[in-house]
């Protein structure tokens, strides 16, 4: 019996160690057993060195509990074994997370929580008391003192939830803004759609109005034709009435003279008043109108006889030597660009349209829109001669090769030739149906060419006083015309953006040059004739190789239009008169562009003196500026 009690007490001690109960509390255990009355315990001291050398396995303290009323050794051992088995199974089934996360300590969790909630005073109290306890050694920092992963995960999820809420709010704001932009775009689309519909309606209305106006205009054409015929009939009646009036005045004056002679007492027989045939009309008295008509008839008869007797001029068959080639070789001097404004001559009341210099004398001729051309002496600028005769603005003028005659073109559709020694008009060419823009002399002096707004150019024979040829080919106004030096080739520049070279003998277009994008205002040859310069309405100046008929270079000094271009006597400098009042000088060797500023308004024309030491430019205010 005693041995059985000893075995029972040793088993209870092992169980106490397995359950984490201290071996030093033997008195408490004896009292518990006495209270039950089932066991008698005996105190036995187990030394560290056991006789049987048995190695005891350390059992972790997992707070196992034995229900009351079931303190059976076999059942307790079986429960311990089952707990160990379950622990092994759980360890085998545990799945480690892919993310290695260090758990957060309890004290760090509390500090972070207090900081997050803004409880600074509580945090200070907790930290001071907590670290004081740690220093005293009252509280131990155990490895198990960590916040479970569930709480940490909840905090992470809460933070992520807050971030997602912020992003959701941001996306809502972006969606609201996009919705507002969409509504605004839809409103603008509706507005533009309504505006387009209104524009289409206005366009249809304008088309209908234009059709109505065309019909209305067509209905007026017969009426205008009838009124025109009536006007001519009335003019004829007026002429006849004036003739009858002059005849009556002559008869009355004859009767008055007869009465005076009768009163004096002279024997005089009054002439009979009767209608006489044409052979007897010469003896009858005639009035001033009849006298003027008779003189006009006689003059026209004389001109007709002269035209019948005068033969047509002949174009030179051989190409004549160009004297400018020798001049260019002699004048091999550096080009001049440092022109300065020297003087201003006010010669016209309206804009100056053209300036030319005499081939040999120090004079220039200016034409203006006030229907007047003037001969000006240099360098003082005194007016030597004034020419009147055109009924509309003058557009261009050109010297005869000898320098003693002048050709002028005008908006009155005529070309006039003038004798500069007398200052009177010696010949008028009529044939264009619209304004004449330009004119030029042939180097032989027997032909004058003109270009017009009616899209044609004409070649006039000075000797036979008639149009020898009309050049057709341009589709818009022909703004410029010039003879190639000492040849039968004509160069024309048109508003249809093309240049054309014509044979004056046949009237055929030999070659056309294309490249300008706007209306060509002027075109000219170099003194040697190997190059062409042209300018258009957008300020673009082009240089062309006349031998190869190919473009060389294009210079854009726009957007102001280029009104006229001219070379100096050496052919090294090209001057352009611009619509913004600037004179551009282009150095053909270096390609540099120099500007002359001095015009107050638009510059219409520019020309060099023969020695290229002076430059003359015409302004739209009626003045001529000299640069030297």
Explain what this protein looks like in three dimensions:
The protein has helices at 2-18, 26-36, 73-93, 106-117, 120-136, 149-264, 288-309, 323-330, and strands spanning 341-346, 352-357, 363-368, 372-377, 383-388, 394-399, 405-410, 414-419, 424-430, 436-441, 447-452, 457-461, 466-471, 478-483, 489-494, 498-503, 508-514, 520-525, 531-536, 540-545, 550-556, 562-567, 573-578, 582-587, 593-597, 603-608, 615-619, 623-627. By secondary structure, the chain is an alpha+beta fold. The protein has a four-stranded antiparallel beta sheet with strand order 1-28-27-26, with no helix packed on it. Strands 2-3-4-5 form a four-stranded antiparallel beta sheet, with no helix packed on it. The protein has a four-stranded antiparallel beta sheet with strand order 6-7-8-9, with no helix packed on it. It is elongated, with a radius of gyration of 61 Å.
Secondary-structure blueprint of this entry?
Elements: H1 2-18, H2 26-36, H3 73-93, H4 106-117, H5 120-136, H6 149-264, H7 288-309, H8 323-330, E1 341-346, E2 352-357, E3 363-368, E4 372-377, E5 383-388, E6 394-399, E7 405-410, E8 414-419, E9 424-430, E10 436-441, E11 447-452, E12 457-461, E13 466-471, E14 478-483, E15 489-494, E16 498-503, E17 508-514, E18 520-525, E19 531-536, E20 540-545, E21 550-556, E22 562-567, E23 573-578, E24 582-587, E25 593-597, E26 603-608, E27 615-619, E28 623-627
Antiparallel strand pairs: 1-28, 2-3, 3-4, 4-5, 6-7, 7-8, 8-9, 10-11, 11-12, 12-13, 14-15, 15-16, 16-17, 18-19, 19-20, 20-21, 22-23, 23-24, 24-25, 26-27, 27-28
Helix pairs in contact: 4-5
């Amino acid at each position: 019996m005693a041995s059985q009690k000893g075995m029972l007490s040793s088993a209870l001690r092992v169980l106490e160690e397995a359950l984490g109960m201290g071996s030093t509390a033997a008195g408490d255990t004896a009292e518990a057993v006495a209270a039950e009355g089932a066991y008698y315990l005996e105190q036995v001291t187990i030394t560290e060195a056991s006789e049987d050398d048995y190695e005891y396995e350390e059992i972790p303290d997992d707070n196992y509990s034995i229900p009351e009323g079931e303190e059976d050794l076999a059942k307790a051992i079986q429960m311990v074994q089952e707990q160990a088995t379950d622990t092994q199974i759980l360890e085998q089934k545990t799945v480690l997370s892919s993310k290695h996360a260090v758990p957060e300590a309890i004290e760090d969790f509390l500090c972070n929580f207090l900081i997050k909630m803004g409880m600074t005073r509580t945090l200070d109290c907790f930290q001071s008391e907590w670290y004081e306890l740690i220093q005293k050694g009252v509280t131990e920092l155990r490895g198990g003192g960590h916040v479970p992963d569930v709480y940490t995960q909840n905090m992470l999820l809460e933070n992520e939830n807050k971030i997602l809420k912020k992003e959701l709010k941001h996306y809502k704001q972006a969606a609201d803004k996009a919705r507002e932009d969409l509504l605004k775009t839809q409103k603008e689309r509706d507005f533009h759609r309504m505006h387009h519909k209104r524009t289409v309606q206005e366009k249809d209305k304008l088309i209908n109005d234009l059709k109505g106006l065309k019909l209305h205009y067509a209905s007026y054409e017969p009426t205008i034709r009838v009124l025109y015929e009536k006007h001519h009939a009335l003019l004829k009646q007026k002429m006849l009435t004036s003739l009858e009036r002059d005849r009556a005045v002559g008869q009355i004056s004859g009767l008055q003279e007869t009465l005076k002679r009768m009163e004096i007492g002279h024997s005089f027989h009054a002439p009979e008043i009767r209608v006489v045939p044409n052979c007897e009309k010469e003896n009858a008295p005639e009035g001033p109108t009849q006298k003027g008509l008779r003189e006009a008839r006689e003059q026209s008869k004389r001109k007709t006889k002269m035209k019948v007797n005068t033969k047509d001029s002949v174009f030179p068959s051989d190409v004549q030597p160009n004297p400018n080639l020798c001049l260019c070789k002699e004048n091999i001097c550096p080009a001049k660009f440092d022109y300065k404004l020297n003087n201003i001559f006010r010669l016209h009341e309206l804009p100056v349209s053209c300036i030319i210099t005499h081939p040999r004398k120090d004079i220039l001729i200016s034409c203006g829109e006030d229907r007047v051309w003037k001969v000006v002496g240099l360098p003082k600028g005194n007016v030597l001669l004034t020419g009147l005769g055109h009924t509309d603005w003058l557009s261009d003028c050109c010297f005869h090769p000898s320098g003693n005659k002048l050709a002028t073109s005008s908006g009155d559709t005529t070309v006039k030739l003038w004798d500069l020694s007398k200052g009177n008009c010696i010949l008028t060419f009529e044939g264009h149906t619209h304004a004449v823009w330009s004119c030029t002399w042939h180097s032989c002096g027997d032909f004058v060419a003109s270009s017009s707004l009616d899209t044609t150019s004409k070649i006039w024979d000075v000797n036979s006083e008639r149009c020898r040829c009309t050049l057709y080919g341009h589709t818009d106004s022909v703004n410029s015309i010039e003879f190639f030096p000492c040849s039968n080739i004509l160069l024309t520049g048109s508003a249809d953006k093309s240049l054309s070279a014509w044979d004056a003998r046949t009237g055929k277009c030999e070659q056309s040059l294309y490249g300008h994008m706007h209306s060509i205002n002027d075109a000219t040859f170099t003194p040697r004739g190997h190059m062409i310069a042209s300018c258009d309405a957008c300020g673009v100046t082009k240089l062309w190789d006349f031998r190869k008929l190919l473009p060389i270079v294009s210079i854009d000094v726009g957007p102001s239009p280029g009104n006229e271009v001219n070379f100096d006597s050496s052919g090294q400098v090209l001057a352009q008169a611009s619509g913004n009042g600037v004179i551009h000088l282009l150095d053909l060797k270096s390609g540099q562009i120099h500007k002359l500023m001095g015009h107050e308004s638009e510059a219409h024309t520019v020309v060099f003196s023969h020695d290229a030491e002076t430059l003359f430019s015409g302004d739209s205010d009626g003045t001529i500026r000299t640069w030297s």
